[in-house]
Amino acid sequence: MPLNEGPRQSGERRLSVNPFYGPANPLGDMAEAPPTHRLPDQPMAPVTAHQLVRDELMLDGNARLNLATFVTTWMEPEAGVLMAECRDKNMIDKDEYPRTAELERRCVAMLADLWHAPDPAAAVGCSTTGSSEACMLAGMALKRRWTRRNADRYPGARPNLVMGVNVQVCWEKFCNFWEVEARLVPMEGERFHLDPQAAAELCDENTIGVVGILGSTFDGSYEPVAELCAALDAVQERTGLDIPVHVDGASGAMVAPFLDEDLVWDFRLPRVASINTSGHKYGLVYPGVGWALWRDAEALPEELVFRVNYLGGDMPTFALNFSRPGAQVVAQYYTFLRLGRDGYRAVQQAARDVATGMAGRIEALGDFRLLTRGDELPVFAFTTAPDVTAYDVFDVSRRLRESGWLVPAYTFPANREDLSVLRVVCRNGFSADLAELLTQDLERLLPELRRQQRPLTRDKGVATGFHH
Rounded to an integer, what is the distance from CA 164 to the centroid of its chain? Predict the structure, then answer.
């Protein structure tokens, strides 16, 4: 056995220590309060930093009880493990992480098949950080195609995009950022989304496209995409204008294929050029992933696709964001693999059953009038009945928050600004048991609300954090 030698000369190599491994001063951690709006001067123990952050986050609402958000708030532990294992992989490094890139490609192919692309192998698409980015990309493609067709008139002519006033705010951002005129079809009476004929009448030679929404955030209803395409077919027959349709399927594109298989809204309609969805909504993945697909390469102008020599490989990319983690894309592939068509059908049907059942129980209370019933998206909107004058929907939202329920109350847009509603989004993880508890809490509040002399909300504009 060799003997241990004594210390070597003083110039020997020392171990390199990551600064995170260095001990913080325990006395300082107990005696000093770190600043909140500038970097602290000294480090602190990880357990202390963790507890400080965690204590503040206790004041957030409970995500599982958030009936405002469409975003997934529960996944299986196995999905969480996969995401943790992939959060350090940069999606853009496709040459360094080829299998992650392959899983993204498979997801695009699966969606192309699900949405009935004429040739799923020829459909093109990409992952995004969410539907907002996907909508921006789809809008850019629409504008570029229109620009190429109208090269003799642009930039003199101003392009426009036709859509319902109920679109998500990202479409308003697109029109603002890319200098496109937004032509909005207003709500009328009990119609809370786009009217196909009214949309067609707003179209002209400067229209880059029309947006149809498969699942309005205001009330959960599907817009009639097939009727919209038929109205635009008539426009083409009359004027020769060939106006494409983009389907914003942020939520519905992951519901309708499983629960409404006979509904024609996707690439089966030749006029549908592109579709987006949010993987992190009814795609059942934690926040941070969306998808944009075009029916074929012609629908996505090649000049918009960047080919970057990055880390030793030729990488085609079409995205507004560059670096982002691969975790969400991996989680999307896991969920596709885990559930399959039958699994997705079961999960979405369960959510719809919760929504329709809860809507029926709320209607039976007598104080409320349903606008939708949760039989399209698992989402329904309701307002107070005409004879209810002691309280309004903002009072209901505020009182439910006292029990932890986050149910948004908001006013509808132009032409129906007189209408204020509550909206309930039923997602996977919001069970029939939780729905029953929410209904019981609402019923328990009604006697107190009915005894009010008048609604207590003075400023409806700040009565809720929901503004989209």
Answer: 18
